[in-house]
Specification:
single chain, Rossmann fold, D-amino Acid Aminotransferase, Chain A, domain 1, eight-stranded antiparallel beta sheet, 17 helices, binds ligand MV4
Length: 494
């Protein structure tokens, strides 16, 4: 009998995981909520089970129901994807208790790395460079004040239980510390169930570099080089690339070695990511992400290694199929996260029905998504429509290819951040590879450039809404060809 994997996630990442299952002779079992009854991922699976209402707590966060399905369908493993239960030690523990393999590290490692302050302390002990900061969490203002004064403003107040930016605040002076401390503690309590926070020196205008690693159950470890994720908005990553324009082969080797050391220090197993800040040639450990990440595809494009397939092999106790000397960088990959959000209204989510949808393709283009024409993007989940990933022989080719792909992309019915991505791909600083965590703050003209792009495309938008009418389904087909003939879509992009 074929072995089965339960995929405890939805959307594009659920499909990504099931594709790897199919290519390796594994069967996939989907669990889905009432909001996803028509979703592609539930149809792609070999078996699919409705487990609850659209509310995440009732379905995608419902450990009891998910484990029940895993048991009843005889799954040997559960793949949690990203978000939802992917970093939840209780979920990993439930799997361990029932003899089902959690595709990820042990519950013990999840708990340790989930406490960002404890992880930071552990890495400091191991001699790994960390951002200057306190050696303990802080609970009251006096303590916070003395640490902040010692390391010097500006500082960052960060929730211990968090990661990914939730509840993080930059503080520039004593006067603002109380408010930030209280806000961070409050958000930490409600989002992570623990109000603990810690303080680090704020490193301005650095780069956010993360290393992809793989560790098998025999203790063999490799790194798959880095991704640069400096372009974020409210700590939401928007554009990622592999490799980083900032790393030399020497620095890559050094940081990659440290990333592996981080994993070994805690007995890590499976795929993971070690995050660093890079500032003036010096790097600092930030946190470790104990899951497959949204942006893993850029690494796959450049290394040729199927990271999810490796995860599934590791979970079956097989040794890594690659050694460090088999890992090579070939060309350049860039990812744009295509979100249903309104660029003219502070990028607020814009869920709803995709009345018209046609994704780009052709050489060097990969689109990972779980949507289709007439799909309704539910409002209860994240607003990502797809990941648009391109490969080029070098960074310049990748940028031009990304522009070409963005102009081929047709999405009608919801607002998207495609105009934002078009503006970034034409921004001189971006093109020069001058990326930094403050890129979006510093590029004040970027939103203006984006508005100009939107104005230029306005007639097209109107035409599209007209032709992608639900009652004229056949018209929609000719609309796609009409769109591709429009001058706005025929711009010379290099
Ligand atoms: C920082 C930082 C500067 N100094 N910590 C953001 C997400 C989380 N994983 C870590 N993040 C950062 N932590 C210290 N001590 C800068 C970032 C950061 C960032 C900050 C503002 C705007 C964009 C950013 C992009 C990447 C990282």
């Amino acid at each position: 009998m074929k072995k089965k994997v339960l995929v405890a996630n939805r959307g594009e990442i659920a499909i990504r995981i099931m594709r790897a299952c199919r290519e390796t002779g594994l069967k996939s079992v989907a669990v889905y909520s009432e909001a996803d009854t028509g979703a592609l991922f539930a149809k792609y699976a070999d078996e699919a089970y409705l487990i609850g209402s659209a509310q995440p707590a009732d379905s995608y966060l419902n450990i009891k129901k998910i484990m029940e399905v895993a048991r009843e369908t005889d799954c040997f493993a559960v793949h949690p994807g990203y978000g939802f239960l992917s970093q939840n030690p209780s979920f990993a523990q439930a799997c361990e208790d029932q003899g089902i393999k959690f595709v990820g590290p042990s519950s013990r490692v999840l708990a340790l790395m989930g406490n960002k302050e404890a992880a930071r302390r552990e890495m400091k002990k191991a001699g790994i460079p960390v951002v200057p900061g306190g050696d303990r969490g802080v609970s009251e203002l006096g303590e916070a004040r003395s640490i902040a004064r010692e390391i010097g403003y500006p500082v960052m107040v960060k929730p211990s239980g968090g990661g990914g930016g939730i509840g993080m605040f930059r503080v520039d002076s004593d006067d603002d510390l109380r408010k930030a401390l209280e806000a961070s503690q409050r958000i930490a309590s409600s989002a992570f169930g623990v109000g603990d926070v810690y303080i680090e020196k704020y490193l301005p205008n650095c780069r956010h570099i993360e290393f992809q690693i793989l560790v098998d159950s025999h203790g063999k470890a490799v790194h798959l080089c880095e991704r640069e994720c400096s372009i974020q908005r409210r700590y939401q990553k928007l554009i990622e690339e592999c490799p980083s324009p900032a790393l030399t082969p020497e620095l890559r080797r050094e940081m990659g070695g440290i990333a592996i050391k981080v994993a070994r220090r805690v007995g890590y197993e499976n795929a993971g990511t070690v995050e660093f800040l890079l500032s003036e040639g010096k790097f600092y450990f930030l946190e470790m992400n104990t899951r497959i990440q949204v942006e893993h595809a850029v690494t796959e494009m450049v290394t040729g290694i199927d990271i999810v397939k490796e995860q599934l092999q590791i979970a079956q106790g097989q040794p890594l199929s690659i050694r460090q000397r088999d890992v090579h960088l070939n060309g350049w990959a860039i990812e744009c996260r295509i979100n249903a959000e309104d660029p003219l209204n502070n990028f607020m989510p814009s869920p709803g029905k995709l009345r018209g949808y046609r994704s780009p393709g052709g050489i060097g283009v990969r689109v990972d998504s779980g949507v289709h024409t007439r799909y309704v993007i539910p409002h209860l989940y994240d607003s990502m429509i797809s990941k648009l990933v391109v490969w080029g022989k070098d960074r310049n080719e990748a940028i031009i290819r990304m522009r070409r792909a963005l102009y081929e992309y047709i999405i009608v019915g919801v607002k998207t951040n495609i105009p934002f991505h078009k503006a970034v791909m034409e921004n001189p600083r971006f093109v020069a590879g001058e990326l930094a965590t403050q890129f979006l703050e510093n590029e004040a003209s970027l939103l203006e450039d984006m508005r100009r792009i939107m104005e230029r495309e306005e007639p097209l938008g109107e035409k599209l809404s007209e032709v992608f009418d639900d009652k004229k389904r056949r018209a929609a087909i000719s609309a796609v060809s009409a769109v591709l003939q429009m001058p706005q879509y025929k711009r010379i992009l290099r």
